[in-house]
Amino acid sequence: MAPPQGSRAPLEFGGPLGAAALLLLLPATMFHLLLVARSGPARLLGPPPYLPGPEALWSPRALLLWLAWLGLQAALYLLPARKVAEGQELKDKSRLRYPINGFQALMLTALLVGLGVSAGLPLGALPEMLLPLAFAATLTAFIFSLFLYVKALLAPASALAPGGNSGNPIYDFFLGRELNPRICFFDFKYFCELRPGLIGWVLINLALLVQEAELRGSPSLAMWLVNGFQLLYVGDALWHEEAVLTTMDIIHDGFGFMLAFGDLAWVPFTYSLQAQFLLYHPQALGLPMASVICLINATGYYIFRGANSQKNTFRKNPSDPRVADLETIATATGRQLLVSGWWGMVRHPNYLGDLIMALAWSLPCGVSHLLPYFYLLYFTALLVHREARDERQCQQKYGLAWHEYCRRVPYRIVPYIY
């Protein structure tokens, strides 16, 4: 049952035509990056070296491996959690419960992979399967999104997301109709958000490092840096897993193709682009430059973690001594807006830290190719778009208080620039 017309959110991403284009453009971009990363010229804006045929994309072995990976992560999700957290209040005044065991899943996965490698598992062969694995992940995302769309047709109006119930099937399929699709207590969106894709990303990175060691005798310093930086990022996300319950993905966006494909395919196979590039295009990196890059990543991480921790601490307990002295603006909703500390510097300091880290992940790849900087370019566009969406929602939610906040904190992401 569709909600009343007045409850529907404005169409985003160019409406149905934009959604239809993204259904094709996102997978095409992912496969383009996979193909050019291993090519000699490695041109981001040039054509791929070849167009793979069905035999290069379809592999029953890769599909079974991918389904086994999803099954393993689902099994780890179902293990007893160190904590069960409540989400935000829903339209029907209820709160869903979520297991906080993502970091435990990462550690158990590392243990299982370590045991597998010691028993002869050829981890270094994984990079040769990236194309069929990406195809299996894309196929899974399409089928899963269709299941989610059909399931949402039976969901009550109170369970639908604000934006994914326009009545246009293509747009709703892309954006997602249901806010928190579940079977019993297994939450599909929450599971996909941080588990298979993020942990898969660092596993692919590790496999690329192992293959480089097999090809060249030892991993390069550049490959070590990329692996270390991105493992820190993933480990941080899973250690602070509870914080995802207050993000736009969880509390606002429906679960459709946009998030399903992004979580299951885009993240592991495009976020590992720097490591893919380094395997096929090794870069010499001296200790002085490596030290500078480490300092850049540490600066980004300090801003990112500091801003997120300050926000999460304030949300949990505004009287906490760590945030009690921060200046705030009262809103009509009863909530307070921070206008000092990290959140008095720019409106989204966590995004600033994210972008600085993205730069540090690309620098070990040198400056002779644009391709390794795709993540930085894409992530900049993503965060600017997300910031604009967040601005609209906050303006609707907080009204005059938000206008005052914007007056007090005029810069959005980068101080004195944007």
UniProtKB/TrEMBL annotation:
<protein>
    <recommendedName>
        <fullName>Delta(14)-sterol reductase TM7SF2</fullName>
        <ecNumber>1.3.1.70</ecNumber>
    </recommendedName>
</protein>
<feature type="transmembrane region" description="Helical">
    <location>
        <begin position="63"/>
        <end position="81"/>
    </location>
</feature>
<keyword id="KW-0153">Cholesterol metabolism</keyword>
<keyword id="KW-0256">Endoplasmic reticulum</keyword>
<feature type="transmembrane region" description="Helical">
    <location>
        <begin position="255"/>
        <end position="273"/>
    </location>
</feature>
<keyword id="KW-0812">Transmembrane</keyword>
<comment type="function">
    <text>Catalyzes the reduction of the C14-unsaturated bond of lanosterol, as part of the metabolic pathway leading to cholesterol biosynthesis.</text>
</comment>
<dbReference type="Pfam" id="PF01222">
    <property type="entry name" value="ERG4_ERG24"/>
</dbReference>
<keyword id="KW-0753">Steroid metabolism</keyword>
<feature type="transmembrane region" description="Helical">
    <location>
        <begin position="355"/>
        <end position="384"/>
    </location>
</feature>
<feature type="transmembrane region" description="Helical">
    <location>
        <begin position="102"/>
        <end position="123"/>
    </location>
</feature>
<comment type="pathway">
    <text>Steroid biosynthesis; cholesterol biosynthesis.</text>
</comment>
<dbReference type="InterPro" id="IPR018083">
    <property type="entry name" value="Sterol_reductase_CS"/>
</dbReference>
<feature type="transmembrane region" description="Helical">
    <location>
        <begin position="285"/>
        <end position="304"/>
    </location>
</feature>
<keyword id="KW-0472">Membrane</keyword>
<keyword id="KW-0756">Sterol biosynthesis</keyword>
<keyword id="KW-1133">Transmembrane helix</keyword>
<feature type="transmembrane region" description="Helical">
    <location>
        <begin position="129"/>
        <end position="150"/>
    </location>
</feature>
<keyword id="KW-0443">Lipid metabolism</keyword>
<keyword id="KW-0752">Steroid biosynthesis</keyword>
<dbReference type="InterPro" id="IPR001171">
    <property type="entry name" value="ERG24_DHCR-like"/>
</dbReference>
<comment type="similarity">
    <text>Belongs to the ERG4/ERG24 family.</text>
</comment>
<keyword id="KW-0560">Oxidoreductase</keyword>
<keyword id="KW-0152">Cholesterol biosynthesis</keyword>
<keyword id="KW-1207">Sterol metabolism</keyword>
<keyword id="KW-0444">Lipid biosynthesis</keyword>
